[in-house]
Amino acid sequence: MDVMDRRALNRATLARQLLLAREQVAALDAVHALAGLNAQSAKDPYVGLWARLAGFTTDDLADLLHSRQVVRACLMRYTQHLVTAEDYQVFRPVIAPVLVRAHHSAWRKRTEGVDLEQLVVQGTEALNGVTLTRPQLGKKLQEYWPDHEGTALGWTFQYLAPVVHPPPDGLWGRKGGATPFALAEDWLGVELGEPDPAALILIYLAAFGPAALRDIHAWSGLSRLGEVVDELRPRLVTFTDDAGTELFDLPDAPRPDPGTPAPVRLLPEFDNLMVGFRDRSRVITKAQQARVCVGAYIAATLLVDGFVRGMWKLELTDDTATLVIELLDDNGGSDVVLTSAEREAVEAEGLELLRFVAPELEHQVQLV
How confident is the model at residue 1 (pLDDT cuts 50, 70, 90)? Predict the structure, then answer.
């Protein structure tokens, strides 16, 4: 098997993640190509697509949510994601065991004595043809289990039944409010099929390959996919990384020359580039990871030449938006030397980001 070093893996991943250039790709096609976008924070998918697509506007994604071509739902690693409607039909049946496990971990004690199969039946009946918020759904479920909290009942239904969160959920600039629920099959107008883990793995490899089995596990939250990958081997190509770990990929997927230039990019919190792998060394060192990935939190990052070189945050006042970029060297410290061209590119990209997220304010970029 051919060996792919860190830089080769980096460039292959950047190509899949639309980070070697701003692509002339429709937002819907991009969401599919990326295997979805983490959407714990409503703004992050918008920033993630802005970093990848030429001419992207917030309306491009909002229109997809309103037209039901993209949905927001609890999926991989039991976190909120934006995915295409077609990918949801693949992902949700396969991810179901992850969501059941999440319920058992978070809500099992608070739903003791509840017939969970009956809860799904009653919740489905309550949501049939309508949209309810979690508190509204919880209140309806309390009619059957009055001794249990509505919050626990509502969350349990979310984990155990296929639901999506329609607009205004997922829209840029939404001001709080309870999360709305709709039955996925009602919202999409299709019946969900049987689990097809092979289809999910192929979508993952198109977006993140070459990748190891443990990377697929980390991204999806699933385990025991080895037999499925083995069945797919005739359709895949294999490599190893510098440590000898076997990596899987699609034969015709892009694997650019390692010397391919990579532009400066500013990526949002929980970006795909960070959550798509167990071994993140293709984009970030272990020392940097200790600063960027703290517990379950993953900071917004700066890429220079395709690798993490900093973290960023926004500071807003009544009239000014300041992008503060904390530079990181390979050891997680601040001893970073940028060329004058790299510094100019970082500052220019920072100003473009500020124009996107806060067009009405004055803009400043600070490198610290």
Answer: low
In a domain, 230, yes or no: no
* Calpha distance 62→4 (Å, rounded): 39
Q: β-pairing, 362-367 with 320-327?
A: parallel
How would you list the strands of the sheet with 2-3, edge to edge?
A: 2-3, 237-240, 246-249
In a domain, 207, yes or no: no
The sign of the CA dihedral 207, 18, 283, 40 is negative
pLDDT in tens, 90-112: 999 999 999 999 999 999 999 99
- Residue 48: which H helix or E strand, with range? helix 43-50
Burial class (CB in 10 A: 0-12, 13-18, 19+), 279: middle
| Residue 325 resides in a domain | yes
Q: What is the pTM of this model?
A: 0.95
Which uninterrupted H or E stretch holds 298?
A: strand 297-298
Q: 318: which 2 tokens? A: 């009544």
